[in-house]
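Figure S4 source data
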Amino acid sequence: MNIAIWGAQVLLALAFLVSGGIKMMRPRVATQPMDLSVAQVQTIGGLELLAAIGLILPTAVKVVPVLTPAAAVGLVLLMIGAIAFHVRRGESDGRLAVNVVLLLLALAVAGARFGPYRV
Protein backbone atom coordinates (compact mmCIF):
# COMPACT_ATOMS: atom_id res chain seq x y z
CA MET A 1 0.00 0.00 0.00
CA ASN A 2 2.87 2.35 0.76
CA ILE A 3 4.08 1.94 -2.84
CA ALA A 4 0.66 2.99 -4.15
CA ILE A 5 0.69 6.07 -1.93
CA TRP A 6 4.17 6.97 -3.15
CA GLY A 7 2.94 6.51 -6.72
CA ALA A 8 0.05 8.90 -6.07
CA GLN A 9 2.44 11.40 -4.47
CA VAL A 10 4.81 11.29 -7.44
CA LEU A 11 1.95 11.58 -9.94
CA LEU A 12 0.52 14.58 -8.09
CA ALA A 13 3.94 16.18 -7.76
CA LEU A 14 4.64 15.84 -11.47
CA ALA A 15 1.22 17.19 -12.43
CA PHE A 16 1.58 20.22 -10.19
CA LEU A 17 5.21 20.87 -11.12
CA VAL A 18 4.12 21.14 -14.74
CA SER A 19 0.96 23.11 -14.00
CA GLY A 20 2.61 25.46 -11.53
CA GLY A 21 5.64 25.94 -13.75
CA ILE A 22 3.48 26.91 -16.70
CA LYS A 23 1.51 29.36 -14.58
CA MET A 24 4.68 30.93 -13.23
CA MET A 25 6.44 31.25 -16.60
CA ARG A 26 3.49 32.10 -18.82
CA PRO A 27 0.77 33.51 -16.58
CA ARG A 28 -1.30 34.81 -19.46
CA VAL A 29 -1.90 32.49 -22.41
CA ALA A 30 -4.43 32.85 -25.20
CA THR A 31 -6.78 30.19 -23.83
CA GLN A 32 -6.66 31.43 -20.24
CA PRO A 33 -9.71 33.16 -18.83
CA MET A 34 -9.42 36.87 -18.20
CA ASP A 35 -11.23 36.45 -14.86
CA LEU A 36 -7.90 36.23 -13.03
CA SER A 37 -5.08 38.75 -12.92
CA VAL A 38 -1.50 37.80 -13.70
CA ALA A 39 -0.65 38.08 -10.00
CA GLN A 40 -3.45 35.69 -9.07
CA VAL A 41 -2.36 33.14 -11.66
CA GLN A 42 1.26 33.37 -10.51
CA THR A 43 0.20 32.98 -6.88
CA ILE A 44 -1.73 29.83 -7.74
CA GLY A 45 1.27 28.57 -9.72
CA GLY A 46 3.59 29.25 -6.79
CA LEU A 47 1.28 27.37 -4.41
CA GLU A 48 1.18 24.44 -6.82
CA LEU A 49 4.99 24.35 -7.03
CA LEU A 50 5.34 24.49 -3.24
CA ALA A 51 2.79 21.71 -2.83
CA ALA A 52 4.58 19.55 -5.41
CA ILE A 53 7.83 19.93 -3.48
CA GLY A 54 6.01 19.33 -0.20
CA LEU A 55 4.52 16.08 -1.44
CA ILE A 56 7.91 14.47 -1.99
CA LEU A 57 10.75 16.16 -0.14
CA PRO A 58 9.71 15.96 3.54
CA THR A 59 8.85 12.27 3.38
CA ALA A 60 11.85 11.37 1.21
CA VAL A 61 14.42 12.99 3.51
CA LYS A 62 12.44 12.26 6.69
CA VAL A 63 12.59 15.86 7.87
CA VAL A 64 9.25 17.13 9.20
CA PRO A 65 7.28 14.47 7.28
CA VAL A 66 3.98 15.94 8.50
CA LEU A 67 4.45 18.52 5.72
CA THR A 68 3.62 15.87 3.12
CA PRO A 69 -0.01 15.37 4.16
CA ALA A 70 -0.25 19.11 4.82
CA ALA A 71 0.78 19.74 1.21
CA ALA A 72 -1.84 17.22 0.08
CA VAL A 73 -4.50 19.08 2.10
CA GLY A 74 -3.36 22.30 0.45
CA LEU A 75 -3.86 20.68 -2.95
CA VAL A 76 -7.32 19.49 -1.91
CA LEU A 77 -8.22 23.10 -1.10
CA LEU A 78 -6.71 24.34 -4.39
CA MET A 79 -8.68 21.75 -6.35
CA ILE A 80 -11.92 22.65 -4.58
CA GLY A 81 -11.29 26.24 -5.60
CA ALA A 82 -10.46 25.20 -9.17
CA ILE A 83 -13.62 23.09 -9.43
CA ALA A 84 -15.73 25.96 -8.08
CA PHE A 85 -14.07 28.34 -10.58
CA HIS A 86 -14.79 26.08 -13.56
CA VAL A 87 -18.36 25.36 -12.44
CA ARG A 88 -19.02 29.09 -11.95
CA ARG A 89 -17.79 29.73 -15.50
CA GLY A 90 -20.06 26.98 -16.84
CA GLU A 91 -17.17 24.84 -18.05
CA SER A 92 -17.86 21.13 -18.04
CA ASP A 93 -15.03 19.99 -20.28
CA GLY A 94 -12.02 17.83 -19.45
CA ARG A 95 -10.48 20.39 -17.08
CA LEU A 96 -13.22 19.80 -14.54
CA ALA A 97 -12.72 16.03 -14.70
CA VAL A 98 -8.95 16.43 -14.28
CA ASN A 99 -9.51 18.65 -11.25
CA VAL A 100 -11.81 16.04 -9.69
CA VAL A 101 -9.25 13.26 -10.26
CA LEU A 102 -6.44 15.37 -8.78
CA LEU A 103 -8.69 16.25 -5.82
CA LEU A 104 -9.37 12.57 -5.14
CA LEU A 105 -5.68 11.66 -5.41
CA ALA A 106 -4.68 14.46 -3.03
CA LEU A 107 -7.44 13.43 -0.63
CA ALA A 108 -6.19 9.83 -0.68
CA VAL A 109 -2.60 10.92 -0.01
CA ALA A 110 -3.66 13.21 2.84
CA GLY A 111 -5.81 10.52 4.43
CA ALA A 112 -3.13 7.86 4.14
CA ARG A 113 -0.24 10.03 5.33
CA PHE A 114 -2.20 11.46 8.27
CA GLY A 115 -3.61 8.02 9.02
CA PRO A 116 -2.23 4.50 8.95
CA TYR A 117 0.64 5.10 6.52
CA ARG A 118 2.50 7.86 8.33
CA VAL A 119 6.17 8.09 7.63
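Figure S5 source data
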Amino acid sequence: MLSGLMGIYGRLIPAGIAALVTLGLAGVPATAGAATNADASAAVTIVTLGTLPGGTYSLANAINDHGVVAGTADTAGGAEHAVRWSASHAITDLGTLPGGTYSEALGINNAGYIVGDGDNAAGDTRALRWSPDGTVTDLGALPGHPNAYAVAINDAGVVTGYAPIRAKVFHAVRWSPDGTVTDLGTAPGWTTASSSGAAVNANGAIAGDSYAVGGPSQATKWSPAGVATGLTSPNGGSSDANGISNAGVIVGQYNVTASQAHAVRWAASGTPAELGTLPGGNYSSAQAINNAGVIVGASDTGAGSFYAVRWTAGGTIVKLGVPSVDTGSWAQAINDSGVIAGYVNPPSGTSIAALWT
Protein backbone atom coordinates (compact mmCIF):
# COMPACT_ATOMS: atom_id res chain seq x y z
CA MET A 1 0.00 0.00 0.00
CA LEU A 2 0.96 3.65 0.18
CA SER A 3 2.19 3.69 3.71
CA GLY A 4 5.42 5.31 4.76
CA LEU A 5 8.12 4.80 7.30
CA MET A 6 7.05 5.67 10.83
CA GLY A 7 8.81 8.71 12.19
CA ILE A 8 9.57 7.02 15.53
CA TYR A 9 12.48 4.88 14.33
CA GLY A 10 13.44 2.08 16.67
CA ARG A 11 10.53 2.33 19.12
CA LEU A 12 8.89 -0.85 17.93
CA ILE A 13 11.65 -2.58 16.01
CA PRO A 14 14.44 -4.51 17.80
CA ALA A 15 17.73 -2.66 18.07
CA GLY A 16 19.38 -4.80 15.42
CA ILE A 17 16.83 -3.70 12.85
CA ALA A 18 16.59 -0.12 14.07
CA ALA A 19 20.34 0.29 13.60
CA LEU A 20 19.87 0.09 9.84
CA VAL A 21 18.02 3.40 9.70
CA THR A 22 20.78 5.28 11.52
CA LEU A 23 22.24 7.69 9.00
CA GLY A 24 25.94 8.22 8.34
CA LEU A 25 27.62 11.50 7.49
CA ALA A 26 29.80 10.78 4.46
CA GLY A 27 28.77 12.36 1.15
CA VAL A 28 27.78 10.76 -2.13
CA PRO A 29 27.22 12.28 -5.58
CA ALA A 30 23.83 14.00 -6.02
CA THR A 31 23.00 11.97 -9.11
CA ALA A 32 20.65 9.15 -10.05
CA GLY A 33 21.68 5.96 -11.78
CA ALA A 34 20.69 2.38 -12.55
CA ALA A 35 22.45 -0.94 -12.05
CA THR A 36 21.40 -4.46 -12.90
CA ASN A 37 20.89 -6.42 -9.70
CA ALA A 38 22.83 -9.68 -9.89
CA ASP A 39 22.36 -10.43 -6.18
CA ALA A 40 18.67 -11.31 -6.22
CA SER A 41 16.99 -14.59 -6.94
CA ALA A 42 14.65 -12.73 -9.29
CA ALA A 43 15.68 -10.39 -12.12
CA VAL A 44 15.21 -6.79 -11.01
CA THR A 45 16.88 -3.45 -11.67
CA ILE A 46 17.99 -1.06 -8.93
CA VAL A 47 17.67 2.68 -9.57
CA THR A 48 19.35 4.98 -7.06
CA LEU A 49 17.46 8.25 -6.76
CA GLY A 50 20.26 10.46 -5.52
CA THR A 51 20.10 13.40 -3.13
CA LEU A 52 19.37 17.11 -3.08
CA PRO A 53 22.19 19.25 -4.54
CA GLY A 54 25.00 19.27 -2.01
CA GLY A 55 23.21 16.74 0.20
CA THR A 56 24.65 13.52 1.61
CA TYR A 57 21.70 11.15 2.14
CA SER A 58 18.13 10.38 1.12
CA LEU A 59 15.35 7.95 2.03
CA ALA A 60 12.44 6.78 -0.15
CA ASN A 61 9.55 6.18 2.22
CA ALA A 62 6.47 5.78 -0.02
CA ILE A 63 5.51 5.33 -3.67
CA ASN A 64 2.22 5.70 -5.51
CA ASP A 65 0.91 3.80 -8.51
CA HIS A 66 2.24 6.48 -10.89
CA GLY A 67 5.79 5.96 -9.68
CA VAL A 68 5.99 9.22 -7.72
CA VAL A 69 8.07 8.77 -4.56
CA ALA A 70 7.95 10.63 -1.25
CA GLY A 71 10.86 10.71 1.14
CA THR A 72 13.44 12.70 3.02
CA ALA A 73 16.86 14.12 2.18
CA ASP A 74 19.33 16.54 3.67
CA THR A 75 20.15 19.89 2.14
CA ALA A 76 23.61 21.28 1.46
CA GLY A 77 23.31 23.05 4.80
CA GLY A 78 22.55 19.82 6.66
CA ALA A 79 18.82 20.38 7.26
CA GLU A 80 16.41 17.46 6.80
CA HIS A 81 13.66 18.23 4.25
CA ALA A 82 10.71 16.36 2.79
CA VAL A 83 11.29 15.59 -0.88
CA ARG A 84 9.42 14.20 -3.86
CA TRP A 85 10.85 12.29 -6.80
CA SER A 86 8.82 12.44 -10.01
CA ALA A 87 8.15 9.35 -12.10
CA SER A 88 11.21 10.38 -14.13
CA HIS A 89 13.24 10.55 -10.87
CA ALA A 90 13.62 14.34 -10.70
CA ILE A 91 13.89 15.45 -7.07
CA THR A 92 11.96 18.39 -5.56
CA ASP A 93 12.61 19.93 -2.15
CA LEU A 94 9.20 20.32 -0.49
CA GLY A 95 10.55 22.70 2.12
CA THR A 96 9.18 23.41 5.58
CA LEU A 97 6.50 25.41 7.34
CA PRO A 98 7.26 29.15 7.52
CA GLY A 99 9.97 29.56 10.13
CA GLY A 100 10.52 25.81 10.36
CA THR A 101 13.87 24.07 10.23
CA TYR A 102 13.04 20.50 9.13
CA SER A 103 10.41 18.27 7.55
CA GLU A 104 9.98 14.65 6.45
CA ALA A 105 7.62 12.96 3.99
CA LEU A 106 6.29 9.54 4.93
CA GLY A 107 3.19 8.79 2.83
CA ILE A 108 1.74 9.54 -0.62
CA ASN A 109 -1.53 8.79 -2.42
CA ASN A 110 -2.34 8.35 -6.09
CA ALA A 111 -3.46 11.97 -6.45
CA GLY A 112 0.04 13.06 -5.43
CA TYR A 113 -0.77 14.35 -1.96
CA ILE A 114 2.08 13.72 0.49
CA VAL A 115 1.99 13.63 4.28
CA GLY A 116 4.62 13.79 6.98
CA ASP A 117 5.70 16.23 9.66
CA GLY A 118 7.90 19.22 10.34
CA ASP A 119 8.45 21.92 12.89
CA ASN A 120 6.99 25.40 12.91
CA ALA A 121 8.50 28.70 14.00
CA ALA A 122 7.57 27.94 17.62
CA GLY A 123 9.47 24.64 17.53
CA ASP A 124 6.37 22.43 17.66
CA THR A 125 6.21 19.33 15.45
CA ARG A 126 3.15 19.52 13.19
CA ALA A 127 1.42 16.99 10.95
CA LEU A 128 1.77 18.21 7.36
CA ARG A 129 0.23 17.60 3.95
CA TRP A 130 1.76 18.74 0.68
CA SER A 131 -0.47 19.17 -2.36
CA PRO A 132 0.77 18.13 -5.83
CA ASP A 133 1.83 21.74 -6.51
CA GLY A 134 3.96 21.72 -3.33
CA THR A 135 1.69 23.83 -1.12
CA VAL A 136 2.08 22.74 2.49
CA THR A 137 -0.86 22.55 4.93
CA ASP A 138 -0.69 22.16 8.70
CA LEU A 139 -3.25 19.43 9.53
CA GLY A 140 -3.62 20.46 13.14
CA ALA A 141 -3.45 18.41 16.33
CA LEU A 142 -5.63 17.17 19.16
CA PRO A 143 -7.11 19.95 21.31
CA GLY A 144 -4.70 21.27 23.90
CA HIS A 145 -1.60 19.65 22.38
CA PRO A 146 0.71 21.41 19.90
CA ASN A 147 2.38 18.36 18.33
CA ALA A 148 1.20 15.79 15.78
CA TYR A 149 2.70 13.40 13.24
CA ALA A 150 1.13 12.27 9.94
CA VAL A 151 2.34 8.95 8.51
CA ALA A 152 0.05 7.72 5.71
CA ILE A 153 -2.76 8.92 3.40
CA ASN A 154 -5.26 7.06 1.22
CA ASP A 155 -6.79 8.13 -2.09
CA ALA A 156 -9.84 9.59 -0.33
CA GLY A 157 -7.58 11.92 1.63
CA VAL A 158 -7.90 10.14 4.99
CA VAL A 159 -4.66 10.55 6.94
CA THR A 160 -3.38 8.60 9.92
CA GLY A 161 -0.52 9.07 12.34
CA TYR A 162 -0.23 9.83 16.03
CA ALA A 163 -0.34 12.71 18.50
CA PRO A 164 0.32 13.22 22.22
CA ILE A 165 -2.58 13.20 24.63
CA ARG A 166 -0.44 13.83 27.72
CA ALA A 167 3.25 13.70 28.66
CA LYS A 168 4.95 10.65 27.08
CA VAL A 169 1.62 9.16 25.92
CA PHE A 170 0.58 9.18 22.26
CA HIS A 171 -2.59 8.02 20.53
CA ALA A 172 -3.24 6.99 16.97
CA VAL A 173 -5.22 9.68 15.17
CA ARG A 174 -7.19 10.04 11.96
CA TRP A 175 -7.60 13.23 9.94
CA SER A 176 -10.76 13.20 7.82
CA PRO A 177 -10.72 14.90 4.39
CA ASP A 178 -12.62 17.82 5.94
CA GLY A 179 -9.77 18.33 8.43
CA THR A 180 -11.44 16.80 11.50
CA VAL A 181 -8.89 15.06 13.73
CA THR A 182 -10.06 12.05 15.78
CA ASP A 183 -8.33 10.33 18.69
CA LEU A 184 -8.50 6.60 17.86
CA GLY A 185 -7.47 5.39 21.28
CA THR A 186 -5.80 2.02 21.84
CA ALA A 187 -6.56 -1.67 21.51
CA PRO A 188 -8.63 -3.19 24.33
CA GLY A 189 -6.46 -3.76 27.38
CA TRP A 190 -4.05 -0.95 26.54
CA THR A 191 -6.10 1.90 27.96
CA THR A 192 -3.18 3.52 29.84
CA ALA A 193 -0.68 2.92 27.03
CA SER A 194 0.13 4.63 23.74
CA SER A 195 -0.82 3.85 20.15
CA SER A 196 0.11 4.96 16.64
CA GLY A 197 -1.33 4.67 13.14
CA ALA A 198 1.06 3.46 10.43
CA ALA A 199 -1.03 2.78 7.30
CA VAL A 200 -4.54 3.35 5.94
CA ASN A 201 -6.29 1.46 3.14
CA ALA A 202 -8.87 2.58 0.59
CA ASN A 203 -11.72 1.68 2.93
CA GLY A 204 -10.35 3.81 5.76
CA ALA A 205 -9.17 0.87 7.90
CA ILE A 206 -5.96 1.71 9.76
CA ALA A 207 -3.09 -0.49 10.91
CA GLY A 208 -0.63 0.39 13.64
CA ASP A 209 0.00 -0.66 17.19
CA SER A 210 -0.67 -0.12 20.87
CA TYR A 211 2.39 -0.07 23.10
CA ALA A 212 3.87 0.62 26.48
CA VAL A 213 6.84 2.98 26.46
CA GLY A 214 9.93 0.83 26.74
CA GLY A 215 7.76 -2.27 26.99
CA PRO A 216 5.59 -4.62 24.93
CA SER A 217 3.40 -3.73 21.97
CA GLN A 218 0.47 -5.22 20.06
CA ALA A 219 -0.34 -4.80 16.40
CA THR A 220 -3.69 -3.03 16.17
CA LYS A 221 -6.34 -2.56 13.49
CA TRP A 222 -8.89 0.23 13.54
CA SER A 223 -12.05 -0.21 11.49
CA PRO A 224 -13.24 2.67 9.26
CA ALA A 225 -15.57 3.55 12.13
CA GLY A 226 -12.58 3.76 14.50
CA VAL A 227 -13.14 0.55 16.47
CA ALA A 228 -9.78 -0.88 17.63
CA THR A 229 -8.92 -4.58 17.62
CA GLY A 230 -5.67 -6.07 18.90
CA LEU A 231 -3.99 -8.64 16.64
CA THR A 232 -2.43 -11.78 18.09
CA SER A 233 1.11 -12.67 17.04
CA PRO A 234 2.15 -16.25 16.21
CA ASN A 235 3.53 -16.73 19.74
CA GLY A 236 1.23 -14.32 21.57
CA GLY A 237 4.10 -11.89 22.21
CA SER A 238 4.85 -8.33 21.17
CA SER A 239 4.01 -7.31 17.63
CA ASP A 240 3.75 -4.22 15.41
CA ALA A 241 1.82 -3.50 12.20
CA ASN A 242 3.31 -1.41 9.40
CA GLY A 243 1.11 -1.90 6.32
CA ILE A 244 -2.42 -2.83 5.22
CA SER A 245 -3.93 -3.80 1.86
CA ASN A 246 -7.37 -2.85 0.59
CA ALA A 247 -8.48 -6.40 1.42
CA GLY A 248 -7.54 -5.81 5.06
CA VAL A 249 -4.40 -7.97 5.11
CA ILE A 250 -1.88 -6.48 7.56
CA VAL A 251 1.89 -6.92 7.74
CA GLY A 252 4.51 -6.13 10.35
CA GLN A 253 6.79 -8.02 12.71
CA TYR A 254 6.66 -9.83 16.04
CA ASN A 255 9.20 -10.70 18.71
CA VAL A 256 10.19 -14.37 18.49
CA THR A 257 12.46 -13.85 21.50
CA ALA A 258 13.69 -10.78 23.36
CA SER A 259 16.50 -10.43 20.81
CA GLN A 260 14.88 -11.80 17.64
CA ALA A 261 12.01 -10.58 15.46
CA HIS A 262 10.36 -12.04 12.36
CA ALA A 263 8.06 -10.57 9.75
CA VAL A 264 4.41 -11.55 10.01
CA ARG A 265 1.24 -11.29 7.91
CA TRP A 266 -2.24 -11.17 9.40
CA ALA A 267 -5.10 -12.33 7.20
CA ALA A 268 -8.19 -10.12 7.06
CA SER A 269 -9.67 -12.48 9.66
CA GLY A 270 -6.77 -11.65 12.00
CA THR A 271 -5.02 -15.03 11.68
CA PRO A 272 -1.22 -14.54 11.80
CA ALA A 273 1.36 -16.29 9.61
CA GLU A 274 5.09 -15.96 10.13
CA LEU A 275 7.02 -14.84 7.04
CA GLY A 276 10.46 -15.81 8.30
CA THR A 277 13.88 -14.47 7.33
CA LEU A 278 16.59 -14.96 4.75
CA PRO A 279 18.68 -18.10 5.38
CA GLY A 280 20.65 -17.66 8.58
CA GLY A 281 18.80 -14.51 9.56
CA ASN A 282 17.59 -13.49 13.00
CA TYR A 283 15.55 -10.40 12.12
CA SER A 284 13.04 -9.46 9.49
CA SER A 285 10.37 -6.79 9.17
CA ALA A 286 7.47 -6.53 6.71
CA GLN A 287 6.93 -2.86 5.95
CA ALA A 288 4.25 -2.75 3.25
CA ILE A 289 1.87 -4.85 1.16
CA ASN A 290 0.27 -4.09 -2.20
CA ASN A 291 -3.15 -5.14 -3.42
CA ALA A 292 -1.75 -8.23 -5.14
CA GLY A 293 -0.56 -9.44 -1.73
CA VAL A 294 3.14 -8.88 -2.43
CA ILE A 295 5.01 -7.81 0.71
CA VAL A 296 8.29 -5.92 1.11
CA GLY A 297 10.64 -5.20 3.96
CA ALA A 298 14.08 -6.31 5.07
CA SER A 299 15.91 -9.25 6.61
CA ASP A 300 19.39 -9.97 7.83
CA THR A 301 21.37 -13.06 6.91
CA GLY A 302 23.11 -13.55 10.23
CA ALA A 303 26.21 -11.74 8.91
CA GLY A 304 25.35 -8.28 10.22
CA SER A 305 23.84 -6.57 7.17
CA PHE A 306 20.17 -6.14 6.27
CA TYR A 307 18.86 -6.54 2.74
CA ALA A 308 15.67 -5.46 1.05
CA VAL A 309 13.38 -8.45 0.52
CA ARG A 310 10.12 -9.26 -1.19
CA TRP A 311 7.69 -11.93 -0.11
CA THR A 312 5.42 -13.34 -2.80
CA ALA A 313 1.71 -13.60 -2.12
CA GLY A 314 2.43 -17.24 -1.26
CA GLY A 315 5.01 -16.23 1.36
CA THR A 316 8.26 -17.05 -0.48
CA ILE A 317 11.07 -14.65 0.43
CA VAL A 318 13.31 -13.14 -2.26
CA LYS A 319 16.50 -11.17 -1.53
CA LEU A 320 16.49 -8.07 -3.72
CA GLY A 321 20.15 -7.31 -3.27
CA VAL A 322 22.13 -4.10 -3.69
CA PRO A 323 24.51 -2.47 -6.18
CA SER A 324 28.01 -3.89 -5.87
CA VAL A 325 29.29 -0.79 -4.06
CA ASP A 326 26.67 -1.01 -1.33
CA THR A 327 26.59 -3.01 1.88
CA GLY A 328 22.90 -3.24 2.71
CA SER A 329 19.41 -2.11 1.82
CA TRP A 330 15.85 -1.73 3.09
CA ALA A 331 12.54 -1.93 1.21
CA GLN A 332 9.95 0.45 2.58
CA ALA A 333 7.00 0.55 0.16
CA ILE A 334 5.54 -1.15 -2.93
CA ASN A 335 2.95 0.03 -5.43
CA ASP A 336 0.39 -2.03 -7.31
CA SER A 337 2.73 -2.31 -10.31
CA GLY A 338 5.27 -4.04 -8.08
CA VAL A 339 7.80 -1.19 -8.02
CA ILE A 340 9.54 -1.14 -4.65
CA ALA A 341 10.91 1.93 -2.87
CA GLY A 342 13.47 2.08 -0.09
CA TYR A 343 17.15 2.79 0.26
CA VAL A 344 20.61 1.30 -0.05
CA ASN A 345 23.53 1.77 2.31
CA PRO A 346 26.92 2.45 0.70
CA PRO A 347 30.10 1.51 2.61
CA SER A 348 30.21 5.10 3.90
CA GLY A 349 27.16 4.31 6.02
CA THR A 350 25.01 6.96 4.37
CA SER A 351 21.58 5.89 3.05
CA ILE A 352 20.55 6.67 -0.54
CA ALA A 353 16.95 6.36 -1.81
CA ALA A 354 16.43 3.59 -4.33
CA LEU A 355 13.83 1.78 -6.40
CA TRP A 356 13.66 -1.87 -7.37
CA THR A 357 11.78 -2.39 -10.63
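The first strand starts at residue 33 and ends at 37. The longest helix spans residues 15-18.
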